[in-house]
Amino acid sequence: MLPSALYRVRLDDGPFVTAHIADRMDRNFIRVLVGDRVRVELSPFDLGRGRIVGKL
Hints:
This protein is mainly beta. The protein has a single domain (6-55), classed as CATH 2.40.50.140. The chain has one helix at residues 23-27, and strands at residues 6-10, 16-21, 38-42, 49-55. A 4-stranded mixed beta sheet has the order 1-2-4-3. A hairpin with a 6-residue loop joins strand 3 and strand 4 (49-55). The radius of gyration is 11 Å and the shape is globular.
């Protein structure tokens, strides 16, 4: 977890991306903890950023 509600997420193929929680997850009070497996949508403009859209 990083400041400003950002998370550092390691992808299955190795690299790290910086991601924030999607609004749908935040409204439903879904919490993401260290070690959770999550689904991430990557930004088409910056592949180093994304948003967490669900827990697996």
